[in-house]
Design goal:
Blueprint lengths: L3 E2 L6 H15 L3 E3 H8 L3 H14 L7 E5 L3 E6 L5 H9 L3 H12 L4 H8 L3 H15 L5 E3 L2 E3 L2 H14 L3 H8 L2 H14 L5 H17 L8 H7 L6 H16 L7 H12 L5 H8 L7 H16 L7 H20 L4 E2 L3 H12 L1 H17 L9 H21 L3 E6 L4 H15 L5 E5 L8 E4 L13 E4 L6 H15 L1
Parallel strand pairs: 1-7, 8-9, 8-10, 10-11
Antiparallel strand pairs: 2-4, 3-4, 5-6
Helix pairs in contact: 1-4, 8-11, 10-11, 10-13, 13-14, 14-17, 16-17, 17-20, 18-20, 19-20
């Protein structure tokens, strides 16, 4: 199964041009012609053609972005308010596949003649574009067939939600689709559910409602999977409120909707953080703790506590973990597929640097538990399941960091004060990158876990129970390596 990436909406030459921009960003805005040729594995003539195409493409943005070539190096300069994301948007806005999805969303069905005229392409090109899109849409369990989008309604809306969140121009979207009806619905939701939807979540809500408003009159919607997954939640207090609210909202505009419309909104509310942490906590006090998602939330938290041998998590940390886990598990339970907005391998590599191999291995174990509980075969792992691995790693890192004991370090240098003030600050600066420590100049009235000094103490117990490390050469790499080892031992 092929993961849907933003690049898949672009043509091959467009992908290469965007890659040139990305490589320049990753290399500080300057890369040799030879290195670019090697990275792209293309001929010199092809790169020259790409650079010429880039110059033409960004000609109107000369005050914001420039790509220049001096015969040896390629240079990139961008204004402070311009980024690589703007480059992606520039290319995506002119993409045939993006325009195809836009048209399909707006009209819900098309004829081949109608669409070839709209996109100004041949029949064979259109069929090829649809075939390419379907290979990526497979992950969402949906496909374009006979001029329509087919599949579970929840998965279709989820795909459109991703499309309008990451592909479509948000400014244009807001301008063309903002309506009084959606604004009224948002106010009604806050009032009826007694919640406060925060600004970021309002944007998600508006996008979802715009999609729902468009899709509600779609013919022959499928709800088979949704109905099955909703069985344990039909008596859920939040679902009951959403059900009343949704039926009232659409009846106002003389639109008859199925009860499944409320189910779609319930799944969305819990998977994509519409509720803030306080409002979600209020909901957890009344939800059925034996229902699949709540059961898994609790099981995963207990597994983490046992694994790290925590006696008990602080109340606010446990509450925070339940909030994030519920989003992960609701999405895993109800939804299928995801768009790779951030390169998975790059993100995983960065998280590994911070988390370490053991934490990543444990995150894999948690993912295995979750997919097994929900009956998702590992062979069926989609992009959404892979991204859940990253979310587990981030969650574990957060919990580990908050539970980590702060190692208190005192610096007690035995030399003239004239030197100690400077050298104390040098040591503190060199250690500031180490997480979970508090470093200060030694004060006899305080207790410490570790003392750094340049002379062995005459009395063995003069620093109490603190470990003592005698510096060989202040701020040397040898000493810093040993100090970090001691800190890790004190943490474990």
């Amino acid at each position: 199964m092929t993961t849907l990436k933003i690049e898949h909406f672009l043509e091959k030459n467009d992908i290469r041009e965007v890659t040139i921009f990305k490589q320049l960003v990753l290399n500080g805005g300057k890369l040799s012609y030879a290195n670019m040729l090697e990275y792209l594995s293309i001929a010199k003539a092809s790169l020259e053609k790409d650079l010429e195409s880039i110059s033409f493409r960004i000609e109107s943005l000369a005050d914001q972005v420039q790509v220049t070539f001096d015969g040896q190096f390629i240079f990139l300069t961008m204004s402070n308010d311009f980024s690589l994301q703007h480059i992606y948007k520039l290319y995506l806005n002119q993409s045939v596949k993006v325009n195809l999805i836009r048209f399909l969303f707006k009209h819900q069905e098309f004829s081949i003649t109608q669409l070839t005229q709209e996109l100004a392409i041949s029949d064979s090109s259109l069929f090829r574009k649809i075939k390419e899109l379907n290979s990526f849409l497979k992950e969402f369990g949906i496909k374009i067939r006979n001029g329509q989008m087919h599949g579970e309604e929840l998965h279709i809306r989820h795909f459109y939600f991703q499309f309008f969140s990451y592909i479509e121009n948000k400014e244009a979207l807001v301008a063309s689709h903002t309506s009084k009806q959606i604004a009224q619905m948002l106010q009604a939701v806050e009032s009826f559910l007694h919640i406060t939807i925060e600004p970021t979540n309002r944007q998600r809500f508006n996008t979802w409602m715009m999609i729902s408003k468009n899709r509600v009159n779609s013919k022959s919607k499928q709800y088979t999977s949704l109905r099955d997954h909703m069985q344990p939640y039909l008596e859920d207090p939040l679902y009951q409120k959403i059900r009343i609210m949704v039926l009232r909202y659409f009846s106002r505009y003389s639109i008859e909707v199925d009860e499944e419309e409320a189910m779609l909104h319930f799944a969305f509310f819990l998977a994509f953080p519409i509720l803030n942490e306080h409002d979600f906590h209020e909901y957890t006090l009344e939800r059925d703790r034996r229902a699949p998602i709540a059961t898994l939330d609790t099981y995963i938290v207990e597994t983490i506590i046992i694994h790290y041998k925590f006696r008990k998590l602080p109340y606010m940390l446990e509450r925070d973990m339940h909030y994030h886990l519920s989003h992960i598990h609701t999405k895993l339970y109800f939804f299928q597929g995801d768009m790779e907005v951030y390169a998975f391998e790059e993100l995983l590599a960065k998280e590994k640097q911070f988390a370490g191999r053991k934490m990543v291995s444990f995150a894999h174990k948690l993912l295995g538990i979750s997919t097994t509980k929900f009956g998702i075969l590992r062979a069926e792992e989609t992009q959404s399941v892979k991204m859940d691995l990253l979310k587990y790693i981030s969650l574990l890192a957060m919990a580990s960091f908050k539970m980590r004991t702060i190692v208190k370090i005192g610096i007690d240098l035995k030399m003239e004060k004239f030197y100690t003030e400077t050298l104390n600050q040098l040591l503190i600066l060199n250690m500031r990158h180490i997480n979970g420590i508090k470093v200060e100049v030694y004060q006899p009235v305080k207790s410490y876990d570790l003392i750094l000094t340049n002379e062995q103490a005459i009395k063995k117990d003069c620093y109490g129970d603190a470990k003592v490390y005698v510096l060989s050469e202040i701020s040397s790499s040898f000493d810093m390596k040993n100090i970090q080892r001691i800190i890790q031992e004190l943490h474990s």
